[in-house]
Amino acid sequence: MKIGELAKRSGLSAHTIRYYERIGLLPYADRDRSSRRDYDASILVWIEFIGRLKTAGMPIREMLHYAMLREQGAGSEAARRKLLERHRERVRARVADLNACLLVLDTKINGYAETEKRIKDYDAAIPQRRREPVRTRSARAR
């Protein structure tokens, strides 16, 4: 598959794919007779995985380290697992922080909703007074 199709199917731009290849995050693609990149469809699984790592906040240097270990193949599984376990702990801590932030936001939003309800209820409870029009004084002779 050519780089344009890979970009379309992976959601990455062609520029990002070339960059990832240049820094070693993606393996170098085979080349066709015209020297254009020709990717195997299996690369989509790897791209999806590194996308998840990126979304989970893993720094590129750690993704590169993981990619290097992956390229080493059998025998690097324990090191790959340790790297992922360390990152999982950071993700769990981040999720806990985000949950605490959600609690603060929910509390604040509920406070505003309660205030708006009190104001609406108060306004509804005020009896509507009818004001009589202001009467004009009759002019007195001086």
- Summarize model confidence as the mean pLDDT: 90
Shape: elongated
Uncertain segments:
none
What class do helices, strands and sheet pairing give?
A: mainly alpha
Helix content: 55-70%
So what's the oligomer here? Answer: single chain
Number of H/I helices: 5
Structural description of this entry:
- The relative contact order is 0.07.
- This protein has helices at residues 3-10, 14-23, 43-55, 60-72, 77-125, and strands at 30-31, 37-38.
- It has five helices and two strands.
- Strands 1-2 form a two-stranded antiparallel sheet.
- It is elongated.
- With 142 residues, the protein is mainly α.
- It starts with a helix and ends in a 17-residue tail after the last helix.
- The model has no long low-confidence stretch (mean pLDDT 90).
